[in-house]
């Protein structure tokens, strides 16, 4: 009789391999997301389904958007995507109508009872609505990355001429009145 092997061991090994490619400051977040996904699963056979991050999701989602340019700091290591949002997820674009700080935008989105969105949500939205970013910049405040300078940045999709771009903006400056903040409908 062979040695007992925990059915979750392959998932744990996969998580450990994934963590090697994640920036140190993002590791706790990745572990917390993976643990939350494990806790949502029932016991028994169903629990053996794949529950840990696929390191290729990020690249697939990014390529599907067909951007003309992507900021070099928008990487799997800096913006870990553990799973794709549900295709049927509905989004709303929150228009503040004036320049606002990150804190003001987040407060308004929360006041409306809407969850903030991540880079994964932004990529899904842009893939399904590729011309929207030509109208105005679309910001995902639920994702942020810290530069070596100590400054925090969030991703947004915008256009420069006809070029569709995925960029980062410093969270400490005001967002201009053209920006729309992507939020998930409840």
3D architecture notes:
It is built from 6 helices and 7 strands. Helix content is 31%, strand content 18%. The longest helix is centred in the N-terminal third of the chain and has 13 residues, at 27-39. It is globular. Helix 3 (57-65) packs parallel to helix 5. With 186 residues, the chain is of the alpha/beta class. The protein has helices at 9-19, 27-39, 57-65, 102-111, 119-128, 132-135, and strands spanning 69-70, 91-95, 138-139, 145-146, 152-160, 163-170, 180-184. Strands 1, 2, 3, 4, 5, 6 and 7 form a 7-stranded mixed sheet that branches. The chain starts with 8 loop residues before the first helix and ends with a strand. It has 2 domains: 1-53, no CATH class; 54-184, Mannose-Binding Protein A, Chain A.
Q: What fraction of the residues are assigned to beta strands by DSSP? A: 15-25%
Q: Characterize the biggest β-sheet.
A: 7 strands, mixed
Class based on secondary structure composition and strand pairing: alpha/beta
Integer count of domains: 2
Continuous helix count: 6
> Architecture of the largest domain, CATH level 2?
Roll
Large-scale geometry? globular
Describe what is shown at a glance:
The chain is 31% helix and 18% strand.
Write the layout of secondary structure elements.
Elements lengths: L8 H11 L7 H13 L17 H9 L3 E2 L20 E5 L6 H10 L7 H10 L3 H4 L2 E2 L5 E2 L5 E9 L2 E8 L9 E5 L2
Parallel strand pairs: 1-6, 3-7
Antiparallel strand pairs: 2-7, 3-5, 4-5, 5-6
Helix pairs in contact: 3-5
């Amino acid at each position: 009789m062979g040695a007992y092997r925990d059915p979750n061991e392959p998932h744990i090994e996969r998580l450990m391999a994934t963590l090697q490619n994640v920036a140190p400051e993002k590791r706790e977040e990745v572990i917390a997301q993976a643990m939350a996904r494990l806790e949502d699963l029932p016991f028994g056979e169903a629990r053996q389904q794949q529950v840990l991050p696929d390191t290729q999701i990020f690249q697939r989602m990014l390529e599907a958007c067909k951007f003309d340019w992507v900021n070099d700091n928008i990487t799997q290591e800096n913006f870990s995507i553990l799973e794709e949002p549900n295709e049927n997820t509905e989004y709303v674009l929150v228009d503040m109508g004036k320049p606002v700080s990150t804190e003001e935008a987040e407060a308004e989105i929360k006041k409306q009872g809407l969850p903030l969105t991540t880079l994964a949500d932004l990529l899904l939205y842009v893939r399904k609505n590729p011309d929207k970013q030509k109208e105005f910049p679309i910001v995902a405040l639920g994702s942020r990355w810290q530069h070596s300078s100590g400054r925090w940045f969030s991703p947004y999709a915008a256009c420069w001429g006809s070029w569709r771009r995925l960029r980062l903006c410093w969270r400490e400056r005001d967002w201009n009145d053209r920006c729309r903040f992507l939020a998930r409908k409840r």
